[in-house]
Specification:
The complex is a heterodimer. By secondary structure, chain A is of the alpha+beta class. Chain A is 25% helix and 47% strand. Chain A contains nine helices and 22 strands. The longest helix of chain A has 19 residues. By secondary structure, chain B is α+β, with helices and mostly antiparallel strands. In chain B, 21% of the residues lie in helices and 51% in strands. In chain B, β4 and β5 form a beta hairpin. The chains are: A alpha+beta, B alpha+beta. At the A-B interface, α2 and β2 of A face β3 and β5 of B.
């Protein structure tokens, strides 16, 4: 006995038979291997029944022997459906193309809005975006993620401190925060130069004002170095004092460096797999060769598909496995000392203003305990210690 | 006389060798599921069919099924599956 599914695929014809002795017709059909099902009585001398499409063609010769007539009433099943679809294939293709076009248009970049940047910076950003392939008309899931764009822009363009990249719909919103360097006052009011730090003066260049200290003087923070009050007693004049006063300052720094340290580094090998994610199920499109990395880190980026405003429940997922290795670094005592000194120097340089110069360094203490190098270093630095302090009128000494 | 003899031998065999009687004696095997289905194997052809009645030819005599809203779900040379509301199943001796 065939089941309903097979009937669906082979196609079913519903036959209406009228005439005398329909039972005998049924017997004849059945005995000639024509399968008949769903026989219903429609009144005296009328029956309807179903036969498969293939059998329907064989029906005629048997019917002719009996005194009855048959009529093919209804055709159902896949072959008829397919024929109908073929006839309407233009519509189907049109609908499909329409959906594809809408889908592609929904996933394109239509607009890039840059906010908060000056025209010159904006132009630079646009150029950088173009290099990355983020332009109007590109497909979103083929370009980089907003996070990656943000990262690249921040590192590529020096003029910006931060850029926020947000993708909303088909528009990229870039919010830029530019580095704004404080403008130097062109014409400062009357001012003194005072000491920033405790130091011994080693060098002085006074452009304007009256120096109050001399080389080799020890100054305290806040002490006036160059006065803005010039002229003889009684005929004083207030001017903005200008100049550079270099002081000698000692900085002490402590460094601890382990002789042996373990690092995790990437070996450079990576394996990519791509998935199509449908809800919670991931269908691998391009599965990575079984990477077999012992240690690895996984980086996943998910690109969602969109249809008009809606997010579709599927996404394009790229998974990158990067092989990582653990490396043990070991210093000899001499190397450790060198590295520690270098570290201390770099550390200090980061803290110092740009015009400061490290003149000399002295190791005060050096010990080797518990597999670590302890180092105390004294740095000898020449640094501009002058700081402007405005003179408030009417408050002179 | 010879026919009656043959029948007696078959009857005896069915009884004593525990062979199914429908095979040995060419009888219909009728399976009913409540009132709604009736499945008849080993019939010899359709005699009459309407929505209230089905008459089948058997090797000996006829089988008459009465009820309501009958539909023949499947019909094969020796099998038939009838659906509907079955009220009576009657054997008619010729």
């Amino acid at each position: 006995m065939k089941n309903q599914w097979i009937h669906y695929f082979s196609g079913t014809v519903t036959v209406t038979a009228t005439g005398q002795g329909l039972e005998r017709l049924l017997n004849t059909l059945v005995r000639n291997q024509i399968s008949v099902w769903n026989v219903k009585w429609r009144g005296p001398n009328e029956l309807i029944f179903c036969v498969s499409l293939a059998d329907a063609k064989k029906l005629r010769p048997f019917v002719r022997k009996h005194k009855c007539k048959i009529l093919f009433a209804k055709r159902t099943g896949f072959p008829f459906f397919a024929k109908k679809m073929l006839r309407n294939s233009g519509f189907l293709a049109g609908a499909l193309i329409f959906m594809i076009v809408i889908f592609l248009l929904s996933n394109m970049i239509w607009k890039i809005e840059i906010e908060g940047a000056e025209p010159a910076t904006e132009y630079k950003i646009e150029k950088a975006l173009k290099e990355m392939g983020v332009t109007r008309g590109k497909l979103q899931f083929l370009t980089e993620t907003p996070e990656s764009i943000q990262h690249q822009l921040t590192s590529k363009i020096d003029e910006i401190t931060w850029v926020g990249v947000k993708l909303s719909g088909t528009t990229y919103h870039l919010r830029v925060v530019e580095k704004s360097e404080p403008k130097k006052k062109e014409n400062p009011g009357p001012q003194n130069l005072v000491a920033k730090k405790k130091a011994v003066i080693v060098d002085m260049f006074v452009e304007e004002g009256e120096p109050r200290v001399e080389i080799h003087d020890l100054v305290k923070p806040g002490q006036i170095l160059v006065s803005g009050e010039i002229g003889k007693e009684g005929e004083t004049k207030l001017v903005p004092a200008k100049g550079e006063i270099y002081g000698e300052i000692w900085y002490r720094s402590d460094v601890v460096l382990p002789l042996e340290s373990r690092f995790q580094v990437f070996s450079g090998k990576e394996a990519r797999s791509r998935f199509l994610q449908l809800g919670k199920i991931s269908i691998p499109l391009w599965s990575a060769e079984k990477s077999g990395f012992k240690n690895f880190e996984t980086e996943t980026s998910t690109r969602e598909f969109r249809f008009l405003n809606r997010r579709l429940p599927f996404a394009y997922v790229t998974e990158i496995h990067r092989e990582s290795e653990i490396i043990t670094r070991k210093y000899s005592d001499q190397d450790a000392l060198k590295v520690a000194r270098e570290m201390a120097r770099r550390d200090l340089q980061n803290k110092l203003p740009e015009d400061a110069v490290i003149k000399d360094e002295k190791i005060l203490h050096h010990s080797n305990r518990n597999g670590k190098v302890y180092l105390k270093i004294l740095f000898h630095v020449y640094e501009n210690i002058a700081k402007e302090q405005p003179i408030i009128q009417g408050e002179s000494e | 006389m010879a026919k009656a003899w043959g029948k007696q031998i078959r009857n005896w065999l069915a009884k004593h060798l525990e062979l199914p009687p429908d095979v040995m004696m060419d009888l219909p095997r009728i399976t009913m599921i409540g009132q709604i289905h009736i499945y008849i194997e080993n019939h010899k052809g359709l005699l009459a069919f309407s929505d209230k009645e089905l008459r089948l030819l058997l090797t000996q005599g006829q089988l008459l099924i009465k009820g309501k809203s009958f539909v023949i779900k499947t019909i094969l040379p020796e099998e038939i599956l009838l659906e509907g509301e079955i009220n009576q199943v009657v054997f008619i001796r010729e």
